Amino acid sequence: MKFKVAMLSYHTCPLATLGGKDTGGMNVYVREVTHKLGEKGVHVDVFTRSQDEHVPHVLHDLGYGNRVVHIPAGPEIPLPKPVLSNYLEEFVAGVEAFAAGKGIHYDLVHSHYWMSGVAGLYLKNKWNIPLVHMFHTLGIMKNRVAQTPGEIESDYRIAGERKVLVDANHVIAATPAELAQLQFLYQADSRRITIIPPGVDTSRFYPIPMDEAKEYIGVPPCGRMLLFVGRIEPLKGLDILLQAIAYMRKQPELSDLQFCLTVIGGDPEAGNPNQEMQRIQSLREQFGLQDLVTFLGKKSQETLPYYYSAADAVVVPSFYESFGMVALEAMACGTPVVASQVGGLAYLVKDGETGFTVPVDDPVALAEPLTRILREDGLRSRLAKRASEEAQSYSWEHISSQLIRVYQRFSKEPITDALQPDLQLDADGLLR
Description:
Blueprint: E1 4-8, H1 25-39, E2 43-49, E3 58-59, E4 67-71, H2 81-84, H3 88-102, E5 108-112, H4 114-127, E6 131-134, H5 139-145, H6 155-167, E7 170-173, H7 176-186, E8 193-195, H8 210-217, E9 224-229, H9 238-249, E10 259-264, H10 275-286, E11 293-297, H11 304-310, E12 313-316, H12 325-332, E13 337-340, H13 343-348, E14 355-358, H14 363-375, H15 379-391, H16 396-408
Parallel strand pairs: 1-2, 1-5, 2-4, 5-6, 6-7, 7-8, 9-10, 9-12, 10-11, 12-13, 13-14
Antiparallel strand pairs: 3-4
């Protein structure tokens, strides 16, 4: 009998197009890990709140019989996160009804993000099964780096995170940095936390010859491109990147160099773009960068490897990242990453080896390695080779095997015999 997992992704669907306001690395994580768990013989139903009444409530798009189940909870439209907490009880009732209607007994709940964790606690107690949780971001950390009052997370969220930490059976942290944050800011018990980083699909994200990638996306062969991929929100630091580009434009050593910045994420053509998109577009005009900076909006996962491979560098100037999925995808495509020295990015990007890390909120410091990559012959190639090699250790095959080992702690029977026995953890609890 298959081990059965109820995977909770309340606020966002793993099948959603990436680059939207609430879609990003977590969506990729849930989708990819579910597919790989199915391959290893684990049955997973992913429960998410229905945001479109025209989308079937049950979709078999994750392989191996695993399902995405859209639970009506509140109006079936996208809603702001502060509003979503009002419908958690309705969501939980819908999950219960689905399980009862199918006659299915789950062995474990695996929740993602704090609201799913709160829902997971209800189901843990109702079904008397273990709860494993992954936060992806932390409210206290977001408050520490918030750029505007609108970014401040509520006391309700912080209290919810604390309760999940106390009552969940186990917590997955993405990096040693996140473990330290949980210990220091939330007084978490490290004995109930395992570090397992997110993974990357190395069958999709791999180096494409730069000339072929440029031809595919329409970049001139002689052109040099810097790339930003992510949600358009203040936390992502896109304004810092624009300041860095404006600074670089004034430098004599780049006066003869054709380069541009491509931004993937958000919806720049929306009739009512969000406040941050409006601000970023205004900054582009203020700095006179209309000819250098292009906003492309959202792009599919199938297209992203071409953009990564065509770029001289992928820039991640975030004020906070629990991990940094974009950075890992870029590295898998053999593209150097220039990132803020914060959170998971400081752990993931090896400074001077797979890219460069720079102080947060410092446009001049950010401009320096970008200029080096654009000007120094052979530097990109050296960084690219090492980045691609480093990314191989983050395959979903490795990550899912470690996750099953966590599940196995709560199962009396062997979950699967498809594990790789040679996988071990280093002193920091990380894969080696």
